[in-house]
Amino acid sequence: xxxxxxxxxxxxxxxxxxxxxxxxxxxxxxxxxxxxxxxxxxxxxxxxxxxxxxxxxxxxxxxxxxxxxxxxxxxxxxxxxxxxxxxxxxxxxxxxxxxxxxxxxxxxxxxxxxxxxxxxxxx
Length: 123
Fold this sequence. Notes:
Layout: H1 51-61, E1 78-81, E2 93-96, H2 98-118
Antiparallel strand pairs: 1-2
């Protein structure tokens, strides 16, 4: 009689037999069960992550209410950055409708455009 081996992920379930009766170490997909997520992932960039990665992270960690924090309009909303720096801090973002988001970003966009014109090239 063969000794039952438990899955090495720590779930406590018996690991199945694989090809030709060979004992497997993990139940299918258990070897990545939370062990490689977030900061444990070797590719983790933290606050150095790009624009899209930061918004994916934000979508997972900040609940969207569908109500603009500026005008109170209900419907489709964006997460707008408050400080102008991409950080993994949910309190640094507020939920705005597209018109309020454009209005809040207008001064920083205008300033960037003005600076690029002074440097001798347009955006």
